[in-house]
């Protein structure tokens, strides 16, 4: 058995635990911070010890609590509910310290305490869950989920940790989501130390039921159900056990589901499994598990006679269900009904908002009698503390009878016998609620109170009988003091803690003078004099809790003009710089190039620009907003903060949001996340703090769905950052995952100049477009790692030189230097930002001569594309890789689009494995970001033969069919000469009828294969029968010409295999007509496709 128990909680639940421990002969130790020294639990426990700190934070200080347990000889800790009760890390901390955690083991807490992971478990066990997201959710994911719900269907945001309705909001409209998300996250972080949220669909007419489960690690049993449907803004108000209206078949199904989940985790303590029952369909859904003691455990105890707290303590001491005689056959049927009402110190407004009520309990007289139990920490003279939960008392009623109406009546009478004065409570509201006929008949649901709130709040308190004797309060202040003495009262505008009194008795005050400071909701609020006068009475003391409208001072008005404020004397000096601002400005000044002259000089000596110079060139003037400039390398154990802030500014990653091409596309389209690794800081390596910054920035990019431009120069991961003692390898960092997750959401362009290895190379390689300069080296490892792997010693210049990486397809565009690369990046980004209004083009009649009259002669396809496109707008991607296939971004009359085209100068325009890959990836890029695609076809087909098949040509070439068939952007095909076989079909999206429009120039020629090959195969016998070579060639040429005439563009068009033969000079006009005829893509939110291939 446990010898000594530390109770890591406060108030009524701490008292409940202390009493249960005493009944088992276990000594108890209570904890409390200085601002909770009035709480009754420290008197009930055998001993008490003060916590450092104040408020909720003190009760959440896991390390301090474990240390106190060790210092005071405690061998167990009971967390109660709330605070640390569901924190797996706290349970692990206890285990490490050799202290028993009274509750489930850490792994169970991890799985059940996190609501998102509990949903996943339920799905794995076949238990139905409400449609929702199964992981911690960010705002973008929540918005996407809400947008896919049926019209007008609301959703529910919920904290993944904790309970009690905190961190929970209904979202009716997508416009309300952002505010609700921030409110939930803030509330959850404050209450549970974890701000993670998830989202699920809301069931409007739902009942809330929960199954109480007990387990010993090998066996689990149920203690029936509780119904908690009467809630106010997701916080339980009234609970009953068992449910008087739940059908037996549903009860049994829920119990079975709860037992399944408990068995799945091998539950070794208490846990409640909660369900929503759709009252319209009788379908139920698992919503969450609470692996701890519940606030409403009392009513299960009442109807079963089983002490749940003692059960927890005995299980933690090593007993089993068998040894406690708690196996399922021994669990009694519920005896009658029990109800719990939560009496809170609060003021309920007609709009449903709740304000905590402060003050001192002048009188506290709970009801008594058979079937009434009180769990409370209240007593006359107790002063409430706004930093803590407002629960004052749990009123528990039990009747062994089978009449639920009788229980409701007993509860109502008990409320009428309850006498609380000095602090406002919700007792009158509870009386009103019990008087509602739907409560007695249990025709209630989770939104019942919210939907009937105006009626429940408006009912007069005088309608209810008073069943206690009035008496003069023992605690109070002189009534009507200000009227009797003719003084003006200064009252507190809100309840809270009186932190400071700034005036003294008989002190004159002027209008606007600071008189006092009140702390409420973790904020300090000042009280200033509204008029001149003299302080004649101080009615409150600094350091005490005060209630709203409580008199703090009595002022005698004084008509002395000299007391008026001289406004000019108090006007601030706008030129003065306060010390805190000066310090911040000085720190910011350290990070800019002007403060780092030596590093800048070294950079310029290498004929390269600094990271900040690149960003200055990239972003529109004065548009760059930097994030995280004040951080530095995580090496405080090796260098001072002063040294680090000078030598490692921004930890080598300059990051922020700027505008690019704003004058062309406007500020909204110009928003871009810009990132630049700074090679002058530890060789641009990725440190602990820069990874944190990168993660923060990528979260913002995902939220805003904005493009990313990254200067990726750097040496990869950085050893030696040793500030974080909890980190072992850092392999759990999210930044690489986050960057890859952006694929398909918004364009990502990487610029590589100089060395780019390891982690920096992964970021570049995960980008949509890589621009590299002539001096770039890109590799998955730098020289040190290569040598460490035993692969030899190499110079950095030997690893991934740019001539290699352009020919193998890693680099999309080769620039001269950083200036040129930045210019190209801006141009490339512009294709994804929108259309331009100003453009010009070459004389389109030149296209009539682009194709030679000799059908066997090659020509310059790129020259034809440049003529077709707006002047200066065509830019080719991966030019030196698979050059038989051209992929390019261009503009037509200012409109951006992508082009794939065969290059007849390389392999005669035939498509090989690399060419197919190149085209397929480019099509994905265009599709993801809504760029129409023009395919210009001049191909004899796919490459064939044994050597071709060695490159897995079947799979690679088929990518063109698979990708093109699933495009969701306008697709057009122009066949300028050869359109043969499967290759031509691949170039036209899989079929000549797949594009929105397929046309040919008069030079077009078509066939199942090349004419010469077709003649050789079809007429082999006839040709072999002719002995004279000259006669044989005459027949061969005649047959080829016959095939050519049959396959000429105008003849094939007549058979309607494609749409038209056009004048080459009209190609732009045709294309613009196609673009105008195409369906305009909807303004997208989120991704069209999961990701874009990196290859």
Describe the structure concisely.
The chain contains 41 helices and 45 strands. It has 1095 residues and is of the alpha/beta class.
List keywords for this structure.
elongated; D-amino Acid Aminotransferase, Chain A, domain 1; Rossmann fold; 1095 residues; alpha/beta; eight-stranded antiparallel beta sheet
Walk me through the structure.
With about 1100 residues, the chain is an alpha/beta fold. The chain folds into eight domains: about 5-100, 3-Layer(aba) Sandwich (Rossmann fold); about 130-200, 2-Layer Sandwich (Dna Ligase, domain 1); about 205-335, D-amino Acid Aminotransferase, Chain A, domain 1; about 345-465, D-amino Acid Aminotransferase, Chain A, domain 1 (2-Layer Sandwich); about 490-550, Beta Barrel (OB fold (Dihydrolipoamide Acetyltransferase, E2P)); about 610-725 and about 730-830, 2-enoyl-CoA Hydratase, Chain A, domain 1 (Alpha-Beta Complex), CATH 3.90.226; about 845-1005 and about 1050-1075, 2-enoyl-CoA Hydratase, Chain A, domain 1 (Alpha-Beta Complex); about 1010-1045. Helices cover about 35% and strands about 20% of the residues. It has 41 helices and 45 strands. Helix 6 crosses helix 7, helix 13 (about 405-415) packs antiparallel against helix 14 (about 425-435) and helix 33 packs parallel to helix 35 (about 955-965). The longest helix is centred in the C-terminal third of the chain and has 19 residues, at about 1030-1045.
């Amino acid at each position: 058995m446990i010898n000594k128990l530390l109770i890591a909680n406060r108030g009524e639940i701490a008292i409940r635990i202390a009493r249960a421990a005493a009944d088992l002969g276990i000594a108890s130790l209570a904890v409390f911070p200085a601002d909770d020294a009035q709480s009754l639990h420290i008197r009930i426990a055998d001993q008490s010890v003060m916590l450092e700190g104040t408020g909720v934070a003190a009760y959440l200080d896991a390390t301090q609590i474990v240390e106190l347990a060790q210092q005071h000889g405690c061998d167990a800790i009971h967390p109660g509910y709330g605070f640390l009760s569901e924190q797996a890390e706290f349970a692990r901390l206890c285990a490490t310290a050799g202290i028993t955690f009274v509750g489930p083991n850490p792994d169970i807490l991890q799985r059940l305490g996190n609501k998102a992971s509990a949903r996943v478990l339920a799905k794995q066990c076949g238990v139905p869950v409400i449609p929702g997201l199964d992981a911690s959710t960010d705002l973008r994911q929540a918005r996407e989920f809400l947008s896919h719900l049926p019209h007008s269907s609301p959703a529910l945001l919920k904290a993944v940790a904790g309970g009690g309705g905190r961190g929970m909001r209904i979202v009716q409209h997508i416009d309300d989501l952002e505010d609700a998300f921030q409110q939930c996250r803030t509330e959850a972080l404050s209450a549970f130390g974890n701000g993670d949220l998830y989202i699920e669909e809301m069931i409007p007419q739902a009942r809330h039921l929960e199954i109480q489960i007990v387990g010993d690690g090998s066996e689990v049993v149920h203690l029936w159900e509780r119904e908690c449907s009467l809630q106010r803004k997701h916080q339980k108000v009234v609970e009953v056990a068992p449910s008087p209206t739940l059908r037996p078949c549903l009860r049994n199904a829920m119990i079975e589901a709860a037992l399944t989940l408990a068995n799945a985790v091998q539950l070794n303590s208490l846990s409640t499994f909660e369900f929503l029952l759709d009252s319209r369909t009788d379908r139920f859904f698992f919503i969450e598990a609470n692996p701890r003691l519940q606030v409403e455990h009392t009513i299960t105890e009442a109807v079963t006679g089983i002490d749940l707290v003692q059960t927890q303590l005995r299980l933690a001491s090593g007993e089993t269900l068998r040894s406690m005689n708690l196996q399922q056959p021994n669990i009694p049927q519920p005896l009658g009904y029990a109800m719990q009402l939560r009496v809170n110190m609060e003021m309920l407004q007609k709009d449903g908002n709740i304000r905590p009520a402060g003050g001192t309990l002048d009188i506290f007289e709970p009801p008594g009698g058979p079937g009434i139990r009180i769990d409370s920490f209240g007593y006359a003279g107790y002063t409430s503390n706004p930093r803590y939960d407002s629960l004052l008392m749990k009123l528990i009623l039990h009747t062994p009878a089978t009449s639920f109406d009788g229980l409701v009546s007993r509860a109502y009478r008990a409320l009428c016998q309850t006498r609380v004065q000095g602090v406002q409570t919700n007792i009158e509201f509870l009386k009103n609620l019990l008087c509602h006929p739907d409560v007695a008949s249990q025709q209630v649901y989770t939104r019942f109170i919210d939907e009937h709130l105006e009626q429940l709040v408006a009912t007069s308190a005088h309608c209810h009988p008073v069943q206690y004797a009035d008496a003069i309060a023992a605690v109070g202040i002189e009534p009507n003091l200000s009227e009797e003495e003719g003084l003006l009262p200064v009252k507190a505008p809100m309840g809270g803690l009186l932190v400071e009194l700034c005036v003294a008795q008989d002190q004159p005050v002027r209008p606007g003078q600071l008189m006092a400071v009140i702390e409420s909701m973790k904020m300090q609020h000042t009280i200033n004099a509204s008029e001149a006068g003299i302080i004649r009475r101080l009615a409150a003391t600094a350091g005490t809790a005060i209630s709203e409208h409580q008199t703090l001072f009595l002022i005698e008005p004084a008509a002395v003009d000299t007391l008026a404020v001289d406004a000019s004397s108090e006007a601030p000096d706008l030129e003065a710089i306060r010390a805190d601002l000066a310090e911040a400005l000085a720190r910011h000044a350290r990070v800019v190039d002007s403060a780092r002259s030596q590093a800048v000089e070294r950079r310029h000596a290498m004929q390269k620009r600094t990271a900040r110079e690149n960003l200055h060139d990239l972003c529109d003037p004065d548009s760059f907003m930097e994030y995280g400039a004040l951080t530095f390398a995580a090496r405080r154990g090796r260098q001072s903060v002063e040294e680090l802030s000078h030598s490692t500014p921004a930890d080598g990653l300059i990051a922020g949001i700027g505008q690019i091409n704003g004058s062309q596309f406007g500020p909204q389209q110009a928003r871009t996340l810009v990132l630049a690794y700074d090679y002058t800081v530890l060789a641009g390596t990725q440190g602990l703090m820069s990874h944190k910054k990168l993660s923060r920035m990528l979260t913002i990019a995902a939220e805003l769905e904005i493009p990313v431009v990254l200067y990726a120069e750097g040496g990869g991961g950085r050893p030696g950052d040793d500030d974080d003692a909890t980190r072992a390898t850092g392999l759990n960092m999210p930044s690489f995952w986050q960057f890859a997750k952006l694929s398909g959401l918004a364009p990502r362009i990487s610029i590589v100049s100089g060395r780019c290895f390891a982690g920096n190379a992964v970021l570049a390689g995960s980008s949509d477009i890589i621009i590299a300069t002539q001096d770039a080296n890109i590799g998955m490892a730098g020289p040190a790692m290569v040598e460490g792997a035993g692969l030899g010693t190499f110079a950095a210049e030997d690893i991934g030189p740019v001539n290699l990486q352009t020919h193998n397809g890693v680099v999309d565009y080769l620039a001269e230097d950083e200036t040129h690369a930045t210019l190209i990046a801006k141009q490339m980004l512009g294709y994804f930002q929108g259309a331009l209004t100003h453009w010009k083009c070459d004389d389109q009649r030149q296209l009539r001569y682009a194709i030679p009259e000799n059908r066997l002669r090659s020509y310059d396809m790129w020259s034809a594309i440049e003529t077709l496109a707006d002047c200066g707008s065509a830019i080719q991607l991966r030019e030196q890789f698979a050059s038989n296939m051209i992929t390019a971004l261009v503009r037509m009359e200012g409109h951006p689009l992508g082009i794939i085209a065969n290059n007849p100068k390389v392999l005669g325009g035939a498509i090989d494995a690399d060419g197919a890959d190149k085209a397929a990836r480019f099509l994905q890029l265009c599709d993801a970001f809504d760029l129409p695609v023009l395919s210009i076809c001049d191909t004899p087909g796919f490459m064939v033969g044994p050597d071709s098949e060695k490159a897995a040509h079947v799979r690679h070439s088929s990518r063109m069919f698979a990708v093109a068939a699933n495009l969701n952007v306008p697709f057009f095909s122009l066949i300028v000469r050869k359109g043969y076989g499967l290759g031509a079909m691949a170039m036209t999206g899989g079929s000549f009828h797949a594009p929105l429009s397929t046309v040919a120039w008069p030079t077009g020629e078509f066939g199942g294969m090349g004419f010469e090959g077709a003649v050789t195969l079809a007429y082999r016998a006839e040709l072999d029968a002719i002995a004279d070579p000259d006669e044989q060639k005459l027949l061969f040429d005649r047959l080829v010409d016959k095939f050519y005439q049959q396959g000429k563009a105008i003849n094939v068009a007549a058979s309607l295999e494609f749409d038209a033969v056009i004048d080459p000079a009209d190609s732009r006009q045709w294309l613009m007509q196609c673009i105008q005829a195409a369906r305009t893509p909807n303004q997208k939110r989120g991704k069209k496709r999961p990701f874009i291939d990196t290859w």
